[in-house]
Amino acid sequence: MNVVFCDIDGTFQEIGHEVPQVNFDAIYALQNQGDHFVFISGRGYAQLEELMTQMEGECDVIFSNGGGHKFVGEPVVYNHCLSLKDCEKVIGILEKRNSFYHLHINEGIVLKPIEQYQSNIKALREKFKPMGDLGKQIMDFKEDFFETQCLHVEDPLAYLAEHPEVKVMKIELMEADDAETAMLRELLNSDATNVFSSFTHCLEVVNPKSSKGYAIKEFMSDFPDAISYGIGDGENDLAMLEVVDVSVAVGNALDSVKAQCDRIIGESATGGVGNFIFAEIIN
């Protein structure tokens, strides 16, 4: 048996683009021969629903970088979340430094009114300018998402205190200044929180057990004789790539990711994932 773990943003799907049909076809082909395909993403489960509706059926999903999972035929499970105490510490630091942050919870994304972050967004747009049209598309997509698809509250920490049923999967921030990003990494990293980069100018703060590597070890304990593949592009995929049998980077992956991989395949925008699966794994 084969088990393919695949990141989404920048790997299975290029941000702002449609998913290449060959990627969906590869999932169906794997399942038809008795193998597993597992999405393993930094997205929360609520942000995966649109992608899942494009599929003909289901596949296993590990979301929030291992903070929770939804396996075929089973309910959604939230584990390895951030505690209210952890959130208080992290948010306190981010508020002091006027950081642009948002909370991934089990019901979506929470952030302060977007108007409060116009200077942050302007700086990010400048930082993305060297990327040309792609940089503009990314920022247009993100700004529209933050404006229209999120729950806006004046005080995110007060909201959490008033809603103890809410589960915080991660706290994400976007920062244009490289020196400030490095400082935030140092300030936010602790025994109770792990910090990593998930995308250009993005940092994520999670429970230390909310790791793609940890989640894969848990998943593979049920399939000890299977061959595991991991396909990714970013820093948050490194933990996954360290524990699978075959590590794979898409062509547009970070150089640091490519350096850790056994194979380099086509880019996300051209269906590198699906083409690799058909060429190497489908009987």
From TrEMBL:
The record ties this protein, via Pfam families, to: Hydrolase_3
Q: Which GO terms describe its molecular function?
A: magnesium ion binding; phosphatase activity
Annotated GO CC locations: cytosol
InterPro entries recorded: HAD-like_sf, HAD-SF_hydro_IIB, HAD_sf
Coiled-coil ranges per UniProt: none
Query: Looking at the keywords, is Hydrolase present?
Result: yes
This chain's protein is named: Hydrolase
